[in-house]
Amino acid sequence: MIRIILIIISLYFTMSSFWVESASLKVSPAQLIIHNVSPGHLYNIYKATNIRLTIYNDESYDQTWKLRIKKPQDKSDTWEKGYNKIPDTSWCYFESNEITVKAKSKGFAHMFVNIPDEEKFYNQHWVAIICVDGAVGSGISLAVDVRVLIETVSKASINNRPYGLLGIAPSMLTFDIRVGETVVSDVTLYNNDANSHTYSIHSLFDESYEDLSNNRNRYLSYSYLPIPETDWIKYPKQFRIEKNQIAKKEISISIPGHVEQPNSKFEDILLIQSDQATLGFIRIRINNLNRGE
To answer: Residue 176 belongs to what H/E stretch?
Structure first.
């Protein structure tokens, strides 16, 4: 039996951000999200999705660029809330660390992702940065960064504590529901820190839409719309978890009978913050079983 594993790539574009550029260096896409990555499986992003990094050379001479993966820097980089720095940048790499692009042409770089086969790496939301800059001796000082957001497979039943200061299992809850119904599920939160913390939960979509760090288009999965009303979802707003302890929290969804988009699938992002920082999120998916009726 052949097991087919799908990766869903969600690319965020606007007319001005289809690519990212610095002077004569232009790269696309400007950002990518990789969903449902299974630890222990090697992913060739191009073979799975037909997506690859494109580097444009508008000059009249060949140019050589260096490719590397780095962690974002707290003081200089901005990235989406709820994503944490990837633990090891060697888990993402290219088939070659350099690419030469002919004059008035474009070149392609193929990216691979290989997360170690450890159960603690399920339910993770990570960010890494692809850096494209001038190769040694090329005389090129330009550089651009492309953010890569990686979400590993959501898994409710795990034998080990999830990786990170705050562990979440599962990291995604899917609700199959009809208009007028209420469905209840739960999530387990792990305080992996040596200190006790007070946590709070709120919807990302309740924050200012103009804030680039929480622009909803950067989070939504393909074919899903933002939840029309965040108060469909009920959850504890604040709670405390002692050091190295776990807590199970109930989340429920009710779709009212006056829904204006009864044939749509919806998503929400529930951000979880400690008394110090945003540590993660739960992706909520709502599949309306009234679709097509």
So the answer is: strand 172-177
The C-alpha atoms of residue 110 and residue 133 are separated, in whole angstroms, by 16
Q: Is 223 left (phi over 0), alpha (psi -120 to 50) or beta?
A: left
Q: Which residue has the tokens 């007319």?
A: 15
Domain extents in the chain:
9-152, 166-288
Tokens of 286: 């709502």
What is the enclosing helix (H) or strand (E) of 109? strand 105-109
Low-confidence ranges of the chain (pLDDT < 70): 1-24, 75-76, 135-141, 208-215, 258-263, 289-293
The pTM for the full model equals: 0.86
Nearest of 186, 179, 155, 176 to residue 286 by alpha carbon: 176
Tell me how many degrees the CA angle 272-224-248 measures, rounded to the nearest 5.
30
Output the pLDDT for position 136: 53
Q: Please, what's the largest Cα pairwise distance for the chain? A: 65
225 phi, psi to nearest 5 deg: -105, 155
Q: How far apart are CA 143 and CA 170, in angstroms?
A: 37
Q: In whole angstroms, give the CA distance from residue 52 to residue 282.
A: 28
Return the CATH architecture of domain 9-152.
Answer: Sandwich (2.60)
Judge if 9-152 and 166-288 fold alike in CATH terms.
Answer: yes
For domain 166-288, give the fold: Immunoglobulin-like (2.60.40)
pLDDT of residue 210: 57
Q: What is the 3-state secondary structure (H, E, C) of 22-89?
A: ECCEEEECCEEEEEEECCCCEEEHHHHHCCCEEEEECCCCCEEEEEEEECCCCCCCCCCCCCEECCCH
The span from the first CA to the last CA of the chain, in angstroms, equals: 35
Q: Is the peptide bond before 29 cis (omega within 30 degrees of 0)?
A: yes
pLDDT at residue 261, as a whole number: 61
